[in-house]
Amino acid sequence: MVARVSYIDSSAEIHPSAVIEDNVSIGANVKIGAFCYIGSNVEIGDGTEIMTHVVIKGPTKIGKDNTIYQFASVGEACQDLKYKGEPTQLVIGDRNIIRESVTIHRGTIQDNGITTVGHDNLFMINAHIAHDCIIGDHCIFANNVTFAGHVHVGDYAIIGGMTAIHQFCEIGAHSMLGGGSIVVKDVPPYVMAQGNHCAPFGINVEGLKRRGFSKEVIRAIRQVYKKLYRSNDTLAQIKPEIEAQAQDIPELGLFVEFFKKSTRGIIR
């Protein structure tokens, strides 16, 4: 079989010691540092900078203006023993910062076959994103955060260092998890939580203020939190009330969508 020729934009800066396999696409103004390995079926978008000693394997698509630091491993085969070498994918959006020794694995055919990372996320040192995870936008994952497979994370979530998240968990948008937490159930949107096992202790008020949420909306979110955690009503009783409120306060729609996807039950 004849190897497919790679496309490398003329403005790309590639260190002579870097290894670039066949069938690779490298966009404009990409920088690839010393001793990097770029495997076949990898696409790297314009303006992305890859430091030294980075390994990227495919099929992987990386968007524009990302920064990937030394010793990161991106697009490697997953650690699921059911994986038998199928051509699954990793898709990364734009403007993500992937710090030292971060690992992000491709998907499995037992799910949708794709691990997905959105835009404008920060992955701090030694974070691990396992197969089939779906990461939203503007998230922060502190040092040594570990995601098992199939975890879904909403936009603007912040996960404290040394936190471990069980497979198939849903982490709601705008939530904040304290360091060292063990998460085995779903975390609703806007909630602050911490502990082993992770338990709720309020809503992420400061984060919401910084993102421009009005006092009225924050008050409505707080009321939903009280219904979830301080009333004697069941979740089945609370859901219709939240759905009705979301007609007037769209921000509450995140709760509605979250409950549709939640399968592991919410943290308590």
Topology readout:
Blueprint: E1 7-8, E2 13-14, E3 19-20, E4 24-26, E5 31-32, E6 37-38, E7 42-44, E8 49-50, E9 55-56, E10 60-62, E11 67-68, E12 73-76, E13 89-92, E14 97-98, E15 103-105, E16 114-117, E17 122-123, E18 128-129, E19 134-135, E20 140-141, E21 146-147, E22 152-153, E23 158-159, E24 164-165, E25 170-171, E26 176-177, E27 182-183, E28 191-195, E29 198-203, H1 205-210, H2 215-229, H3 235-246, H4 253-261
Parallel strand pairs: 1-4, 2-5, 3-6, 4-7, 5-8, 6-9, 7-10, 8-11, 9-12, 10-13, 11-14, 12-15, 13-16, 14-17, 15-18, 16-19, 17-20, 18-21, 19-22, 20-23, 21-24, 22-25, 23-26, 24-27, 26-28
Antiparallel strand pairs: 28-29
Explain this structure to me?
This protein is 16% helix and 28% strand. The protein folds into two domains: 7-150, Hexapeptide repeat proteins (UDP N-Acetylglucosamine Acyltransferase, domain 1, 3 Solenoid), CATH 2.160.10.10; 209-261, Udp N-acetylglucosamine O-acyltransferase, Domain 2. 38% of the residues are buried. It is an alpha/beta fold. The protein has helices spanning 205-210, 215-229, 235-246, 253-261, and strands at 7-8, 13-14, 19-20, 24-26, 31-32, 37-38, 42-44, 49-50, 55-56, 60-62, 67-68, 73-76, 89-92, 97-98, 103-105, 114-117, 122-123, 128-129, 134-135, 140-141, 146-147, 152-153, 158-159, 164-165, 170-171, 176-177, 182-183, 191-195, 198-203. Strands 2-5-8-11-14-17-20-23-26-28-29 form an eleven-stranded mixed beta sheet. A nine-stranded parallel beta sheet has the order 1-4-7-10-13-16-19-22-25, with no helix packed on it. It has a nine-stranded parallel beta sheet with strand order 3-6-9-12-15-18-21-24-27, with no helix packed on it.
